[in-house]
Amino acid sequence: MSQRPEKSKHEAVKKKPEVIMPNNSTLIVIRLVVASVIFAVSLIVSMPEFLSIILLVLAAAAAGYDIVLQAMSSIEEGDYFSVPVVVVFIALLSYFIGFAIEGAALILLYQIGLMLINYAEDHTKKAALELLNYQDDGIKSKMAELVNNKEATSMSIESVMKSSSGSVLKLAMILSVIYAIALPIFTNYTYIVSIHRALTIILIATPMSVAVSIPLAAIVGMCYSAQQGVVIEKASSLEAMADSTVAIFDKGGIFADECPRIIAMYSDILDSATFMNFVAHAVYYSDLPIAKAVSAAFDQEYKLDVISDFRDIPGYGMELSIDGIPVSFGTKELFSSREVELPDDNAAIGQTYYMVVANKYVGKVVVSSDVNEETENLIPEMKAVGISRCILLTEDSKEVGQQFAELMNFNEMYAQCDTEKKLSIISDIAKREKGAVIFVYSSGIESHSDAAVDIRVGNKGKYADAIVDPSYINNLPFAKQVAVRVKEIAVENALFAFIVKALLVFLSIVGYCNLWFAIFIDMVAAVATILNTIRVTNESLISTLRYKMGR
């Protein structure tokens, strides 16, 4: 698939406290150095046990007093299972059951892990924005704004994973209590050992490394798509694009000129100025593309009081009365059954509209009907990236629309469509289709359709989920591929985190994993998933494996 070269959407809801490193990175580094020194002194220097414990408490306080504050804030909010609450709770219990060193190491390593995670996040965002170095300043500023908007980068898969992780944590707590009680009964281990292992299992079950990378995968995907001119407004739209199986296209402004040009005007009865005046008044209230072409060419004053009984006939033309005289203006198909004698137009280049006044032909207008060369291969390429049905909506007649649909390789076509009919068709298809539906249009839609993703071809779109510059329209299949990669990378990271946690749980049960090792490995896994998000710019492992298995 070819790519175009880069160019030089009541009540306040309380938000849960987020686990983030303080903004002053220098301060946190100093705190960690001080905490590490105190921690080392407590281990190396020979001293009474109570002094050693005091030093370990001081080390934990220096490294993680802000974590304690976050835990207290979470408890005030009623979130008793947040990561800071679990970490602080386990650290405190560790001190009480005789594992003070591990309790202090837990806080110290957790804070170091947060620092590394934030560092990796910041550099991943920076790398994502650097993909736009050769894009327009408008796109750069737009994406920079989206990157720092947590709502814009949130995906449903992230919410599902966090929700399920919360349930897993609660279940792990119940099972850990049962394990702590049962282990000494059936083995020779003490309750101190069983409680220590149970705390380790609970720590592993916290969702630290599960969903941290998902927003970053969305950010990289959105920036990578914007690099090729497809600006997606939010991560949920990117996710919907990945699931899309149906693409609905409006013809005007995408496959053909939104505003056709008047090529020629002929009238054997009226002079050119009078004929143009008749045509301009005839199309004034029309939504058909011909109206825009005429309006662009007519520079006289309108006398709207002479117009009455106007009726658009989508795909064919219009009927009205001008100063009480019946007037029809439309294609040859409109007059085919009316016994109106029309001149031969075989030599005309473009689409011809005829003016009939009081059932008599008075002249014709020829407008351009050029096909956009940039979109000649758009539909086959959309099908190649997983779109099973491509549907055309057009204002043309059935005959003209069918010919165009076959030429462009569409699966289905709906002709004679005004705005209301287009929205109705999209709604019907979206309700019946199991996969997501995307709708690509240029103008004329002043609301969001019932499609999962509305893509506006132009420079702006109030109700659109994505904006595509007309010169980048052929990169829509690329954006679909990127959306699929983002979802696959998210799944890869989730599987990796799950495998790491499962392995740690097993090691905890058999006694080969303690608190500091569990938090260290979990944080390393979180950083690894973050670094993996940059692979959105390459084929995912899932795609690679699928390809190799299919060979």
How would you describe what is shown here?
The protein is 53% helix and 13% strand. The protein has 18 helices and 13 strands. It has helices spanning 25-44, 49-77, 83-96, 100-130, 137-147, 156-186, 191-205, 214-227, 235-242, 272-283, 289-297, 332-335, 378-384, 398-408, 419-432, 476-509, 515-532, 541-550, and strands at residues 230-232, 244-250, 262-266, 307-313, 317-322, 325-330, 351-357, 360-367, 389-393, 412-414, 436-441, 453-457, 466-468. The strands form two sheets. It has a seven-stranded mixed β-sheet, with helices on both faces. It has a six-stranded antiparallel β-sheet with strand order 3-8-7-6-5-4. A hairpin with a 2-residue loop joins β7 (351-357) and β8 (360-367).
Topology:
Elements: H1 25-44, H2 49-77, H3 83-96, H4 100-130, H5 137-147, H6 156-186, H7 191-205, H8 214-227, E1 230-232, H9 235-242, E2 244-250, E3 262-266, H10 272-283, H11 289-297, E4 307-313, E5 317-322, E6 325-330, H12 332-335, E7 351-357, E8 360-367, H13 378-384, E9 389-393, H14 398-408, E10 412-414, H15 419-432, E11 436-441, E12 453-457, E13 466-468, H16 476-509, H17 515-532, H18 541-550
Helix pairs in contact: 1-2, 1-4, 2-3, 2-4, 3-4, 3-7, 4-8, 4-17, 5-8, 6-7, 7-16, 7-17, 8-16, 9-16, 10-11, 16-17
